[in-house]
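Write out the 3D structure for:
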Amino acid sequence: MPASISTLQNDIDARYARIASRMPPEEWAVHRPLIEGIARFKRERRAVVMAHNYQPIEITHGIADVVGDSLALAQQAAATDADVIVLCGVHFMAETAKILNPGRTVLIPDMAAGCSLASSITAADIRRLRAAHPGVPVVSYVNTSAEVKAESDVCCTSANAVDIVESLPGQEVIFLPDRYLGRHVQAHTRKRLILWDGACEVHERFSAAEVRTFKAPGVRVLAHPECPPEVLAEADFVGSTAAMGGDIRRHRPDRVVLITECSMAGNLAVEFPAVEFTQPCNLCPHMQKITLPKVLRALETLSPAVTLDPAIIAGARRSLDRMLAVGRREAA
């Protein structure tokens, strides 16, 4: 067997070894031919596969080179030297990768992988908000379209939203589009937030009564800040998907209840095999549109590729760069 093929096979074997306790051999046997094809095309295209934490383990552990929350994916997209980026997530994430890499090919395996938050607000809405609140800075969650980012002053993620708001001058901030994340940020800042009425269709379905049914001695409840405030009040920890992993590393609980998208539990279970994960399960219908066959087809055909107007890229890049700069200052 040629050395390059042997290396590829060894890498694939190692990937399965990490998830063997979570995926039976029969299921892996179905995925493996697709994973092998994707690996070959990655090498030929000089491609990198970036996957959000809400992707299933056959993607996050089977083919991804980078796995993370929206902030980590943006940071890695800004730093990559790959010729091709395959974004296994939803459309706004692929747009973010394109904004940060306008000269590279950015693929999303299914253009229909959208986001209820991104579709809840338009660039025209921001212009109307600015007219109603002159001089007030606009913070847009990364779960927004490129056009919305281009109209904003700075972007944020759930991981850095409070820091971004605190970094801005003045005592008022327009924060959009997630009203629940906005309320969570409002509880951690003295600035007055002007909120939009958007919500994540996955997280807004959780209820406090539902969460209470899972609570018990020795159980740690982790919730995403896109959930309603009464749900967050029931949680032991509130944070981004990346922060949830950090909380588990710090506390090492025996059992965890995850109040977020279902696939997150499968990915964390690989990292923390001794922890029992339970979740009131809500799947993101858009994340589920990304599959191994679609990733293989995207690499084979170099489509669907994300395209954006250069003027939109310039405006959105400014907002993203400001977000990333705040992160660098916090880390310094």
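The mean pLDDT is 94.
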